[in-house]
Automatic annotation (TrEMBL):
It comes from the Bacteria. The keyword Membrane applies. It is a multi-pass membrane protein. Residues 7-181 form the Yip1 domain. The keyword Secreted does not apply. Pfam families: Yip1. This is Yip1 family protein. InterPro entries: Yip1_dom. It comes from Halopseudomonas formosensis.
Length: 213
């Protein structure tokens, strides 16, 4: 399944058809792509939060995460991507319940996994967590994911192009709600289990040799 990822950028129609054919033969072959691809934003978040740091709104003080807190945040990000793909897969199946070729759960999750690939690759921006970089990157990957949705529905789900616009709008609406809900859940879970004093500023890092990368 990894070989299909570049094709999403230069030949989406043909690539979605090939993805459909592969999923028909091996319904769960996308799992390594989901589990490994989700590591990209997770590891990037861990590195950026613990080694590069960021500036809070209204302050010029650079803040860092401790190693333990950064690792927990990375795990939360990984779980969020995996959970969101599973939920989105069932949302796709639910939205398409009246279509002639209603997808099984495996097809829905596979479809959601490939739609998540722009966000996974865009997660590399978390290596340098600055607002001027993160905001445009995630805006671009969100737009690209929407474009892939409208390419993928007719070719992967065997829908007429005119039907794809309606179903695509339904999937986008439900998907945004699911994505925000999953993100908030794992962020609050991270805050609940993260140890006290998870933030450090530059001076505290210099005084604590255990935080020096």
């Amino acid at each position: 399944m990894f070989r299909h990822v570049p094709g999403l950028f230069y030949a989406p129609r043909r690539t979605w058809t090939h993805i459909h054919d592969d999923i028909e033969r091996r319904p769960w072959a996308f799992l390594p792509l989901l589990l490994i691809g989700s590591l990209i934003p997770a590891l990037s978040t861990w590195y950026g939060g613990t080694n590069v740091g960021w500036e809070l709104f209204g302050s010029e003080d650079r803040r860092f995460l401790t190693s333990q807190s950064g690792a927990l945040l990375g795990v939360a990000v990984w779980l969020a991507f995996v959970t969101n793909a599973v939920i989105m897969g069932y949302i796709v199946r639910w939205v398409l319940f009246r279509t002639p070729h209603r997808p099984p759960a495996s097809h829905g999750i596979a479809f959601a996994t490939f739609l998540s690939m722009p966000f996974m690759l865009g997660g590399l921006a978390a290596l340098y967590p600055e607002r001027w970089l993160l905001l445009p990157v995630f805006g671009l990957v969100g737009l690209f994911s929407v474009v892939q949705l409208y390419f993928g529905l007719p070719h992967f789900m065997r829908l007429a192009q005119d039907k794809a616009y309606f179903y695509g709008a339904c999937i986008i609406g439900a998907g945004m709600l699911a994505m925000v809900s999953v993100g908030v859940f794992y962020m609050e879970s991270w805050r609940a289990v993260s140890p006290p004093g998870e933030y450090q500023d530059v001076e505290e890092r210099q005084l604590d040799p255990g935080l020096i990368p």
